[in-house]
Design goal:
heterodimer; A: 175 residues; alpha/beta; 6 strands; 35% helix; B: 141 residues; Nucleotidyltransferase, domain 5; 2 domains; 3 helices
Amino acid sequence: MAKKQVKLNPPPDASFPLSSMIDVVFLLLIFFLVTQKPITEEVLMNVDLPAPDPTTNPNDPLTPITIEVVKYSRDNADEIEKRLASLKEGESVKEVLEKEEMLYYLYNSSVKESRDIRRELQKFKDADSNPTIIIKCDANARFRKLVRLLDICNEYGMDSLNLIKTPGTRMDPEP
Amino acid sequence: MSQRNRPVTEEAASVPISSMIDIVFLLIIFFIVTATLDKDLQDETILLADAPNGRPVVKQDPRTITINLRKDGTMNVAGRTVSPPELTALLENAKKASPGDLSIPIVIRGDRRVQFGHAAELMDAITKTGLYKVSLTGLLE
């Protein structure tokens, strides 16, 4: 008797449908690549704020340095021009102020540019001294000017920085 | 043995995709993790000022309160716009969470174009609460 030949059905396909999954995965990858933020490293600069105690005097004689960030305005233009004229002979006051974004520093009451501030701070660094620095900032000064000054102080290892608003200054309306 | 009798093996024509999928999944996981990190704390509209000599953030105190100060002087904390009195209340609550400790770090992310007067108002609000550990944020590059 002849053996009856059993005809088996072919086994089902065991493979995983990868192609559509890969499509989705690539779409996700492209999405995240496009929406990814550029990697930027943020840094911190510590400052001390004035104490709530009103008896604290920011003009304490023990404090050797006061740096002011001042806004050039019509109110004090004459005074500033006089000061700058005595500091910068032969150079246009307007040019100097515009170069400094209409802002400048007062270092112990004399007008300075950022490179002069660096020179002064270098002296303290050479003497291995870390004095307290009071920074008075005009209400109209841009934040970047203050950050630049704090950054210069950090560069020379000055870490005792006190920040206050220049008394009596008011914010002008935004142009 | 002659060359002719050797069986001819056919090389598969498919691309080896399994390792490629591994890499793609790793990339996706990386982007998912880094994209959601601190997203609620930082305001992307703020342009920070350059500070090449600042102190890099190595390990941040979990109690740190980050205050974003926009160009127009508005403040926001964790994505919510707050007024100076609201900020004072928020800081008072943070103080209550750790009684007797005034060293809760406060980070001010100020826009480079904002007038300092706005920052001074913000700092006044901080000063009223007695907190003193304040840092300003800049950009290293």
